[in-house]
Amino acid sequence: MFRSVKDMGQSGTFPFLPTLVGFVAAQFTGYLWYGPLFGKTWLKAMKEQSPNMTIDQHDSNPIVVAGITWLTSSVCFSTLVHFWHGDSDNKKLGLAEYFCLAHTAWLGFSVPGHVFGHVFSEQHKTVCLLGASYSFTAYTCMALAHWML
């Protein structure tokens, strides 16, 4: 069931297309999440959290950092899928199995950062909730990409 690093390298079947599609879906979801869907709510919470904060709409650094972070997350998720299932029996996982893996990764790796951000860094709870719900949606998109492709 579980794969070794040696097996993964030899099989040569790393899921590049689902990884890329999952990354693009996460980016598009982030655009919607922090734009038309919850952008005003997020911005209001950020200003409450840091009243002297200014946002330069022409600063691309946060977007680049977010992109690199979600590309890394997409590769990590694909690696987890590959280690979990690999291609040893040529049987595709079911949607529920992909969701289980994605939401376990979200709960184990993403949620703690948001909780700690609120508890220890005093981030506004709305900022943390929006971040956690966005990452849940992004991991769900990654699971869907692997299931569909």
Biggest sheet layout: none
Average the pLDDT over all residues and give the rounded result.
86
Q: Enumerate how many helices there are, as a single number.
A: 6
Structural class: mainly alpha
Distance from N terminus to C terminus (CA atoms, Å) equals 21 Å
* Multimeric organization: single chain
Kindly state the number of beta strands: 0
Uncertain regions spanning at least 5 consecutive residues:
none
Query: Considering DSSP H and I runs of 4 or more, what fraction of the residues is helical?
Result: over 70%
Strand-and-helix sequence, N→C? HHHHHH
Radius of gyration: 17 Å
| Beta-strand content | under 5%
- Given the C-alpha coordinates, what overall shape results? elongated
List keywords for this structure.
6 helices, mainly alpha, elongated, 149 residues
3D architecture notes:
The protein has 149 residues and is mostly helical. 76% of the residues lie in helices and 0% in strands. The protein has helices spanning 5-11, 16-37, 39-49, 61-84, 95-119, 125-148. The mean pLDDT is 86.
